Amino acid sequence: MAHVDVNPDFWRGRNVLVTGHTGFKGSWLSLWLYAMKARVSGFALDPPTSPSLFERAHVADIVDDARGDVRDIEALSHALAKSRPDVVFHLAAQSVLRESYVDPIGTVSTNVMGTLNVLEAVRQFNLKAKAERSGDGVRSLVIVTSDKCYENREWVWGYRENEAMGGHDPYSTSKGCAELLMTSYNRSFAEPAAASARAGNVIGGGDWAKDRIVPDAVRAFAIGRALEVRRPRAIRPWQHVLEPLSGYLLLAEALSGKGVAVAEGWNFGPGPESEQPVESLVDTLAAIWGDGAQWLHTGGDELHEATFLKLDSSKARTTLGWRPRLGFRDALKLTADWYKADLERPASSMQEFTLGQIRDYCRAV
């Protein structure tokens, strides 16, 4: 199938609810939807870090900003009733693998019960809309999980969507469980038509999460300190945040038109050139950053992390017409440019700078 672009006309004037809009990916998605003139509502806890992209890019100024926990189904249902969305993107999650070792109960309750609450709240919202003849309800529900949802066998080839769910750690297991919940709802109920999106290791400007390699690198490089790296030879599918977000948007468009025909799991991973060891990422990022940036290997620790992980995105390319646009270095350059701008520019300019990166990405061939 030929490459298909996200369709701004589809999103213009459309009501969209984003759970987790205060997070890294949720903020980028909210800004992109705003740029396409969608009416964006958000439901989330406070930003998970300070600073955050949500604060730096003034996302609260462009969304109907509601705060709440996806584990609270009453608050979530209220947000649905208020925003009356055509499309829901569920991104609210505990998203850091290593944090799941510190707080396994919080990780599982947020990622599993939170997803169940979204599925059930949307189902009840649609049943009520149908009974009251007050609209079509939610036509597209995209559940964002992770490439960690797969039972990782350290294979050299990419995981396909029909591979077994699993996970060594609480985080990975919670994502596999979320996938199984979505599948059970699709099989058990007529609606909503839900699909899941599984991305690789996402990078981009505005991420300050702890224990992620790029935010850790930026914190170190900005103060002239060497970055400490635990597992330099671990291979990951690195991709700029706009790459999977373009897939999520295309998937929502397809759900709106095709419904159950595409209500399943989808991989949105980078091309083989971007499946690189950590040492390649930090070497390249240090060279782009300049100013004598460097890193050192500190050795691993007792916490398990996968060594080898790749995604096969053939289905998304063939069926949705999705494809990544950015190469490995391009993704890192875009990321470094954002952080450099944030260090050098006034805070009031970062929303427009971020929207500019989105516009440039959409124009990329």
TrEMBL record:
Keywords: Lyase. Residues 17-333 form the NAD(P)-binding domain. InterPro entries: CDP_4_6_deHydtase (IPR013445), NAD(P)-bd_dom (IPR016040), NAD(P)-bd_dom_sf (IPR036291). It is an enzyme of class 4 (lyase). Its EC number is 4.2.1.45. Coiled coil: none annotated. The keyword Lyase applies. The keyword Lyase applies. It comes from the Bacteria. GO terms for molecular function: CDP-glucose 4,6-dehydratase activity. PANTHER family: DTDP-D-GLUCOSE 4,6-DEHYDRATASE-RELATED (PTHR43000). This is CDP-glucose 4,6-dehydratase. It comes from Bradyrhizobium commune.
